[in-house]
Amino acid sequence: MQSKAEIDQVLRQKCDAREIPGVVAMAADGNEVIYQGAFGKRDLSKDDAMTTDSVFWIASMTKAITTAAGMQLVEQGKLSLDDPIGKVLPDLASPQVLEGFDASGEPKLRPASKPITLRQLMTHTAGFAYNMWNGDMAAYLDKTGIPAITTCQNAALKTPLASDPGTRWEYGTNIDFVGKAVEAVSGQKLDAYLRDHLLAPLGMTDTAFRIGDAQRQRLVGMHARGEDGALASIPFELEQDPEFHMGGGGLYGTAGDYIKFAQMILNKGKGNGNQVLKPETVALMGQNQIGDLSMGKMTSVAPMYTNDVDLYPDMVKKWGLSFLINTARTPEGRSPGSLAWAGLANTYFWIDPARNVAGVILMQVLPFADARCLEAFAGLERGVYAGLDAAQRAA
User: Fold this and answer.
1) Which one of 82, 160, 179, 180 is least enclosed by Cβ atoms within 10 Å?
2) Is 252 a known active-site residue?
C-alpha cells in the first residue's frame, strides 16, 4: 500500500513537531487490517514510545458499542425503539424541560410535551444536553450542585431536558440511559453485559470500563493544549469504581479492538466468527433516524474540554442509531452515507460501507476537536482512500 508511507509521514511529522503527543491509527476492510501505525510518545512526561496496542480512553466512541448492546435487546423483544422508555426506566417516566431561569436565577421547569423513546435516546433527540455545549445546562448544574456526568455518579443523571423529546438534535447524556436500559432488561451490569455479548464474542479483549493491570502497562497519558498551542501532560482517569458504568463514554480500549467493532458493522453484524447483530439491525443503525432534523454546530461553553464542533459546515448531517451520517462525499473521500463519531480526548473513527473500509485514530489531547488532531485524522483518511483508489486502478 503505497499510501502507507504517506500516512506514516503525516503522523510521524505531527509527533516529531510536538503538534500531537502520540497517535495510533488503523484502517481495515471487512477482512483484514490494511494500515496500522503508532508514532510519538504515550506520555510526553515519560520515555515510553507509542505502540499499536496502547490503551486509550475512547470516551464517546463507547456510545456505538452501548447502542449495539441496546439493539441486541431490541432484536430479542426486551426493549422497544418507540415505546415510552419510562416503562423500563421509571426515572424517565415524567421528564421535565428546562425553560431558562427566572429573575432570581431559579430554574424554570415544565413537564415535557411527550414521553421519551429509546430511538430518541440513541439519536440524541430525547432532549438531554451535555453541559459542555449547553450554557443553560451548565448553569443548572452549578445552581443545583448536580455532579458532572464524568463522575459516573447516579446523581449526574438527574438533569432536566433542554428541549421536548423529538424536536431537535442535541448532543447529550442520552446513551448513558441506553446503558441503564440494557441493565434494566438484561439483569446484568453494563460492564458484564458488554463483555459477554459484544466484547468477548468480537475478540475485543482489551476494552473495558476498568483498566486492568495488563492495560495499565500500556495506558496512554492525557495531555492538554495550552492557549499558546503547547502540550502538557495532565492527570486524568475516570472513576475506576463507578456508581454506574457510563454507556455514553466510559470505555478504555485499543485501536485494534475498535477496528474489530467497525469491521463487525462492515460485515453486517458478524465478527470473529460470531453474528452479534442481525444484518437488518446493522442496516437500521446506519440509516437516518432523525427525519427532517439535522445535526447542528456544537458551540463550546467549556473551552478547557472542547472547542466548537462544526464538522463539514456546508453539509447536511444526519444521525443513525448512535452514528453521525454524512450526506455527501467528504474532502477526504468518505462516501455519502458513511458512519462516524469520536471521543472527547480526540479519538475518531469512520465506517464506509460503500467502500468496505473503516478507520480508527486515537490520541489523548484536550480540548476536543483539536485542529492538529483533526489534521492527523484527515491525513489518515486521505491516505486510506488514495490507497483504495490506486488498488482499483491497478485492478
Assistant:
1) 82
2) no
